Task: inverse folding
DNA sequence: GTGTGCGTCAACGCATGCATTGATGCGTGC
DNA sequence: GCACGCATCAATGCATGCGTTGACGCACAC
């Protein structure tokens, strides 16, 4: 099934969606940038139809806003947006940790989280913020995907994507996230021990602290939009 | 702005989306039903293009699944889905109550919640389950919309819609939700008092109990799919 | 100089045509 | 009798044409 989907050639609309999404997340289309259907179609070598479909999907993802006659505009993230996003994550991710701990999965299935934790620790030792951020993303993605609740996972990944640019932007403004790394490890240990309550609470505090720090940082830096 | 949007004639795609969505929620398109693009286009008196757009939106909403060459199939909800949905609601809605309590909105802005509570109590007195369900929906919608976090609100409404049919279906199988009504009122009082902690915890317990009851009911009734 | 009204045209929403694809059923070979 | 393969065709994904709409600029009146 998954294989069938993977082997069948992706549609033009899917290609347009993935390419535009990647360009937005990587900040190749900066926030505020506006693109008309016809421009993007020309750029991507497609007709307007699949591009239009991709634009609508990106709008549902909250990455762009589409206004008739003005095309799609890459959404900027304000400090208020970040607060909203972190309130959502603070609600959903601890639940994911709790659910995952309850599942008592075999150790092997937790490999993505284990290697993400290892990678974070290595990155800290090397003071490599970019690698740390990548491992951090791996941990959160793994947690969402492994928790067994697809709806919850999709929601987490949606707001995670929305805040991707902001996280990348503030990456080098923060002290080395040593404490965050330790909190991830502790959460993982609680999950491995099957201690749902403790996993949830540990993760909730992690999220709360991390979110507050990031928002304070953004506000202090005077960045109104990212 | 909102007026401008409301007065401008809705697009054909929007009409198709709203009509299909309503038909699905009202169970006029039962779960499992399959429709091809061309069939729906004929039915709705539109061309395939706007119908296709509506189908894709409904898929993102989790109300249907679209398979090439098989059209869209109205999604059925399993007990496992209900569990997932209630785990999401149990995470998000208490946060909404907390956020709303923190906002300290003027009493007038809470009118939707007040009237929903009143309507629930009236419905209980009259043993009118349909009216109760409508008031319940009004309360949850009001809570989501008033909490000030649009992302959270959209997520709550999305899973709420997904579980709409299941709730309607079990409505007459449950005892009169007197306790639930009282819990709504108590949560509202905590919100009015600006007591965020208490609003969150009260609502969390309400969700937890209500969800567990509903799922137990569905499982006991042997309904595998709704 | 400023505000208003109108014309123009670009962008879009929708309809439709066409090529592609994969599901279905039949025939053939084992 | 069963399985495999091929032909057929329905459904779709995409391209494109067309009519509509509203944004923008210009002219004119005040």
Result:
């Amino acid at each position: 099934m998954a294989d069938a989907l993977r082997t069948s050639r992706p549609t033009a609309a899917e290609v347009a969606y993935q390419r535009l999404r990647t360009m937005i997340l990587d900040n190749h289309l900066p926030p505020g940038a506006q693109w008309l259907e016809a421009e993007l179609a020309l750029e991507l070598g497609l007709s307007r139809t699949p591009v239009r479909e991709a634009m609508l999907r990106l709008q549902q993802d909250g990455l762009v806003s589409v206004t008739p006659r003005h095309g799609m505009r890459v959404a900027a993230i304000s400090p208020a947006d970040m607060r909203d996003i972190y309130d959502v994550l603070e609600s959903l991710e601890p639940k994911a940790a709790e659910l995952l701990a309850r599942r008592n999965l075999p150790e092997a299935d937790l490999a993505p989280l284990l290697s993400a934790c290892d990678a974070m620790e290595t990155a800290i030792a090397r003071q490599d913020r970019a690698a740390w951020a990548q491992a951090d993303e791996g941990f959160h993605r793994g947690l969402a995907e492994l928790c067994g609740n697809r709806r919850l996972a999709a929601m987490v990944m949606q707001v995670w994507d929305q805040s991707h640019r902001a996280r990348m932007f503030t990456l080098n403004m923060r002290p080395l996230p040593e404490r965050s790394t330790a909190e991830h490890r502790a959460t993982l240990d609680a999950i491995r021990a099957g201690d749902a309550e403790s996993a949830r609470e540990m993760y909730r505090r992690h999220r709360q602290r991390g979110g507050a720090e990031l928002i304070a940082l953004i506000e202090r830096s005077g960045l109104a939009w990212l």
Remarks:
- Residues 2-74 of chain A form a domain with the Arc Repressor Mutant, subunit A fold (CATH 1.10.10.10).
- Chain A has two domains: 2-74, 79-220.
- Chain A touches chain B at residues 53, 56-57, 60, 62, 84-85, 87-88, 90-92, 94-95, 99, 149-152, 155, 159, 162 (CB under 8 Å).
